[in-house]
Amino acid sequence: MKITALLRCLLAGGFVVAASAARSDGAGDPTPVSSTDGQYFDKDGNPTYKIGKDGKVDWYTFIGYRMYGANCLQCHGPDALGSSYAPSLVDSLKSLSTQQVLGTIIGGKRDVTAAQDLVMPSFGENKNVMCYLNPIYTYLRARSDGALGRERPSNHEAKPADWEKTVDDCFK
Fold first, then answer.
1. I need a labelling partner for 172 at 20 to 30 A (CA). Which of 25, 28, 36, 84 fits?
2. What range does the record give for the signal peptide (predicted)?
């Protein structure tokens, strides 16, 4: 599937965030101010997490944890703390805007210096990443903000009623 067709699918399914001004200080205040179909958004329209006092996480954070493990862990290490191969995303998200993070995931990145050659491949055509882009970002944001520990979330909100249909539509 071409990237434009996949992005159209993601937009239709509500998986890509609304555009907002890029910042160099991270995504900003993660407090949820709205919710649509189990996905929470901050005041700028960026995907965010909701974690109750009892540790119960929203569905997107939980699925993001699982999909991070399936697609990102092999390079960025357990719990997004980095490895000898790729940087800590917990640290990286502290200084990158939502759009910078999503742009890197979709388009990839190459940072070549005399000391190192860092390459992140583009995942723009990988449906296992793109169909779960907001959940992965939401999980990483919670980890970066220190709101979520290293362990698997033990309790989560119920799966949104149309979750399966949204994901199925994305994979078509």
1. 36
2. 1-21
In the chain the domains, ranked by start, together with CATH numbers, are 34-157 (1.10.760.10)
SS3 84: coil
HEC states along 1-67?
CCHHHHHHHHHHHCCCCCCCCCCCCCCCCCCCCEEECCEEECCCCCEECCECCCCCECHHHHHHHHH
pLDDT by residue (tens digit) across 104-124? 999 998 887 777 777 888 999
- Return the residue matching tokens 């569905």: 59
